[in-house]
Every structure is written in C-alpha cells, then in structure tokens.
Amino acid sequence: MLTYVVLAVAGLGAGVLNAIAGGGTFLSFPALVWAGVPPIMANATATFAALPGYASSAWAYRKEIAGGGKPSLRQLMAMAVLGGLIGAGLLLVTPEELFSGVVPWLLLLATIAFAVGPSFLRYLTKTGRQTSVPVALVIVLSVAIYGGYFNGGLGILLLAAFGLIGMTNLHHMNGLKNLMSFVLSVVSVATYSAAGLIDWGSLVVVGVSCAIGGYLGANFARKIKNTALLRVFIITVGFVMAALFFMK
C-alpha cells in the first residue's frame, strides 16, 4: 500500500510540475526505482506515464503552436519522430548495468540544465541570434535523441534548443516543447512497449495520477506568476536524486 501511495503522489506531482515548470521525471523516475522497478524499465514507464500530461499541455497551447516560423512545424515533428526512434533504440541496446551508471550523470545534467535554463534563454532572447534551418534541425534532433533515451529534463533542454535557434516567443516555444515531447515520447514508448520494457502495474498508478496532475497543472500554469520557489524545489530534488544514485 505504501508503494502505491508513493507512486500515486509522485505521478500527481510529476504531472503538475511538467505542466507548470517541467522536471516531473525527477519525481516519477526515482519513485519507480524506489518501488523496485529496474532503471531502464523505470525510465520507459516514467516516459509512458508522462504522455497524458504532454498531450493536455500541448492542447492548451494549440493556438500558440500554430504561430509558425522556421523550422516549420512539420520539420520539427519529423525530428521528434526520428529522435525518439534513435534514442529509444540506443536505450534498448544499453546494458542495465551501464544505464545504472549513466543515470546519475543524466540526472545531474538535466538538473543543471533546468537550473541555468531561464538565464540562458533570456540571454539568447536578448541576442536575437538566428541559425540556418539545417543547423537548427540538427540541434533539435540532438535533444530529441536525448529525450528518446532519457526523459528527465527534456522540456528545459527543448526550450534551450529553441532559444538557441532563434525563437523568442516563449508561449510558442512552450507549446512546441509540449508537442515535441508528446510526439517523440509516443514513438519511444511504442518502441519500449514492443521490447517489453513497460511495468504495466506501476504505469496504471503513475499514469492515472500523472494525467490528473497534468490537467490540474495546465489549469493553473498561466495563473502562477512567480515559480521561483517551485523551481528551487525541483532543482533541489534533482540534485538530491542525482546524489542518491551516485551513492547507490
């Protein structure tokens, strides 16, 4: 019963955090590992559980997504599909022991990216720099491959990538972030499922609670003006989880 409660609370929190500020995997992934799910399977299950939240958040930003620009939406979605396939394929060929050793570094990288992301985006917005479409697609594809391999910190890395290629409208960027996260996660989850990497029992608990959290978070996301304390909490959780995995 304690395990189900922990998974449900982690899923609820993950859904809310993903909708408001990102970083929900910092809660759901460690909770699944704590519940006894092997790391690779926990990563796949946490990615699957985040799908409803990505979908609802993308729908909430559907008007901003339609804003257009270069690269085109079709090109970005193609990179999401390709990156999801490549990342998921890399995960399938990664030995469990090796992935367990890589996880602390991935958590640390994602946490650092989450911590410096807003400042980095403000800098890129002020510079107003632009990149060519081919270079922009390579940058986005690189982040999509990361997302297909490990879902933690995907949102802030996508936002940083969008800023790097010259996007400045944060609402448009946030909508694209949610849509790309959804698309590449659908592709990677399909691959995980075919390979038998989903813990279906844990998924039901985390997925349902994550969907509820995503719905609640989407409703309150635009009403929250100061997310500084929430960001500090997420960053703290990320560093603590990375430290615990390093110790383990």
Automatic annotation (TrEMBL):
Keywords of this entry: Cell membrane, Membrane, Transmembrane, Transmembrane helix, Transport
Cell membrane recorded as keyword: yes
Pfam families for this protein: TauE
UniProt key word Manganese: no
Entry's Gene Ontology cellular component terms: plasma membrane
InterPro entries: TM_pro_TauE-like (IPR002781), TSUP (IPR052017)
Subcellular compartments: Cell membrane
Origin: domain of life: Bacteria
Predominant location: membrane
Residue ranges crossing the lipid bilayer per the database entry: 73-93, 105-124, 131-149, 179-198, 204-221, 228-247
UniProt membrane topology term: Multi-pass membrane protein
Family: Belongs to the 4-toluene sulfonate uptake permease (TSUP) (TC 2.A.102) family.
Protein name, per record: Probable membrane transporter protein
Species this chain originates from: Donghicola tyrosinivorans
